Amino acid sequence: MRYPNGKFPALQHSDAELPNRMRAEDFLTLIQDKQTSAAGRGMSLEEDVNESNAYYVAHEIASVHKKPTPVQIVKVDYPSRSSAVIREAYFRQPSTTDYNGVFEGRYLDFEAKETRNKTSLPLNNFHAHQINHMRLVLKQKGIAFAIIRFILHDETYVLDAAHIIRFWEEAACGGRKSIPYSYIQKHGYLIPEGFRPRLDYLSVIKRHYF
Amino acid sequence: MRYPNGKFPALQHSDAELPNRMRAEDFLTLIQDKQTSAAGRGMSLEEDVNESNAYYVAHEIASVHKKPTPVQIVKVDYPSRSSAVIREAYFRQPSTTDYNGVFEGRYLDFEAKETRNKTSLPLNNFHAHQINHMRLVLKQKGIAFAIIRFILHDETYVLDAAHIIRFWEEAACGGRKSIPYSYIQKHGYLIPEGFRPRLDYLSVIKRHYF
């Protein structure tokens, strides 16, 4: 198999075929959020969730994984038989939530979101297709939720997707564009933080969904 | 936020930090397989599965998605505010299977594999961590399986992961390195092919697992 100029022909796309690119602005916001959070607490929520998932998998308590970041690959070089290097690719908007898996026979599906806002979680933390995805998961009798951290309160909650969907629908009809902290305190479940796993969200899921 | 020379500092990694790169050889085999298959049948198994999943999601029959290809991002350029371009990245070995989701309250988890071999499916279609992953999914009471297509027989089967794990373990102790076609005919479930969805594997799952 030979590819002239080292390009991989089957993955060549024109710009028009890449409708779901993440905008650089969104990407920078994402990175900035991570850095701010890391500066403030030492560990980001995503790191805590990933570490807890690794603990659950290692102890065979559950199989939950973060999905890889979706990337549209345009050009691949192979400088040698021992490596393939992606030389042009774009971030895509994910069509589902970030995490899913199975826990004692139940399907789990969730997003992890943290905010430095003290009074609410802005709904622009979610995308329309993620809301649609959560709706279908609930319809299929999966457990769909968000893990929400209020950094300045140092509190992390599980909030069922049904609440998020309701706020989303109300916002579409002119309602508020965020979920109040007080609402999440009342309708969410506070996750205990510990050493192993650092964020034992499955203990909360087990208590409230089983 | 300014990054000198347009590089994204937080994602800079040295070679030593990238242990899970997919080798170029594996990548080329993957591509060659896809091309061979596409030449022979018009549509690859992966395309059939993806199209069927899109049908299931659109009709709210199930929520099943292919996970994005895992990529280790090393360098990102932002030529403008409207685009972020990945300029250096590497394929990583997936740590789970390719597909998962929820169907009427049950967790589904599977790989899709096709072969031009007439008499067996070689076990090198799977990786050790995928076998471990399927083991844990079964332990957590998920439905784990492979969708296996024998291209030259024009037949596609669902085979429960328990069979694959057994053959894998026997191979580790000196047993054969493939699953015979005759075994899959006997212990697998033939998937009917149709128009919509093209590969109705959920009808088979429903009949045999519910």
From TrEMBL, chains A, B:
Mg(2+) binds at residues 96, 98, 111, 130. Its cofactor is Mg(2+). InterPro entries: Resolv_RecU, Restrct_endonuc-II-like, tRNA_endonuc-like_dom_sf. Binds 1 Mg(2+) ion per subunit. Pfam families: RecU. Gene3D superfamilies: 3.40.1350.10. Keywords: Cytoplasm, DNA damage, DNA recombination, DNA repair, Endonuclease, Hydrolase, Magnesium, Metal-binding, Nuclease. It is found in: Cytoplasm. Its EC number is 3.1.21.10. It catalyses: Endonucleolytic cleavage at a junction such as a reciprocal single-stranded crossover between two homologous DNA duplexes (Holliday junction). The record marks 113 as: Transition state stabilizer. One of its GO terms (molecular function) is hydrolase activity. It is an enzyme of class 3 (hydrolase). Endonuclease that resolves Holliday junction intermediates in genetic recombination. Cleaves mobile four-strand junctions by introducing symmetrical nicks in paired strands. Promotes annealing of linear ssDNA with homologous dsDNA. Required for DNA repair, homologous recombination and chromosome segregation. Belongs to the RecU family. This is Holliday junction resolvase RecU.
